[in-house]
Amino acid sequence: MKIRKRMATGAVVTVLMLGGAAALTAAAPAVAAGPTGAANELSCTTHSDGRTGTADCANNTNRTIAFRVTVVCGWWPDQVGPWKTLNPGDHDSSAATCSGGTGVGSVNWEEG
Fold first, then answer.
1. Which residues share a beta bridge with 57?
2. pTM for the full predicted model
């Protein structure tokens, strides 16, 4: 009797865990969509020193565009830099630091 109860409890926990994972997976695409602003209209270069990721961007369009750096950190929460607004012809940098974990995994930018 005791074995059956343990097995049944384990099955319920497994079903609940799988149900929770399915709910998280279903929500991910909506979160990943991001802002619906400009689409890669800036000319940007990215670099990292291992802990800090930087995006240097220039606005070669005829309208104002904002951007910020996005940094993927290993074993640490991902980071984003401050929004920077670029008027036509301007350039600026946005940086974010991985304060722990294994450092910068990748650097990109987000326009909005």
1. 44, 92
2. 0.65
